[in-house]
Design a protein that fits this description.
Elements lengths: L1 E5 L2 H17 L4 E4 L6 H8 L9 E4 L1 E3 L10 H10 L6 E3 L8 H14 L4 E4 L21 E4 L2 H8 L11 E4 L2 H6 L2 E6 L5 H9 L17 E6 L7
Parallel strand pairs: 1-10, 2-3, 2-6, 3-5, 6-9, 9-10
Antiparallel strand pairs: 4-8, 7-8
Helix pairs in contact: 1-2
The chain binds 2-amino-2-deoxy-6-O-phosphono-alpha-D-glucopyranose.
Amino acid sequence: MDVRVFDGKAAASKAAFNVIKDAMGNGIQTLGLATGSSPVDLYNDMTSSDLDFSKMTSVNLDEYVGLDTKNDQSYHYFMNEHLFSKKPFKQSFVPDGQAADIEQAAKDYDQIIEEHPIDIQLLGIGRNGHIGFNEPGTPFDEGTHKVTLTQSTIDANARFFEHEEDVPRYAISMGIGSIMKSKQIILLAFGEDKADAIKATVEGPVTEDVPASVLQNHDNVIVFVDEAAASKL
Ligand code: GLP
């Protein structure tokens, strides 16, 4: 894995932005996008740039089940707020967490990914090594699916909600199988909280117990980290 360590999140995000910018110069069509705090600086770089995304497609990783898209904790809301309202894409797909039939919505999303092969997939990482909402134990070959969130993820995300019990218990996530089909993957991780997950991802055994460790099997991954996230390497 190509691990690049930077002095701070801003510098790392700028470097990741430059990879996307160069790839757009080479005609990529589809960006896989992520939510969470990790890509926020990168999205700011994108929105303040003169890059034009209006001919590109975006495909997001995941969404909570049951949150209205107008709820400010939904990933639809997050993406609009941070990126789409400022830099619209030709079309943007985010999994439908409000579908009456989540299993069907998952199948439909796999079809969307099939029709729009992802050139670059952005990823954050959970403290337990999850990518998207693929929690430890998720089979590596799985497609889009409904996820029962782990207590560790509920606790990590509780800070964004008024009460812990407001945190959704389920999500719909692109699967690891689809993430691995992306031509290139950019993983962003910042802060000491991520140091164990980054060590396990980069140096640990490839195991379903650490979903991100699967990235060792992909031949085009760049990991952008700050010194704190890299501190256990
Ligand atoms: C959530 C998201 C992940 C994200 C993770 C880390 O669980 N589903 O896609 O990578 O949080 O978030 P953060 O970047 O805020 O640390």
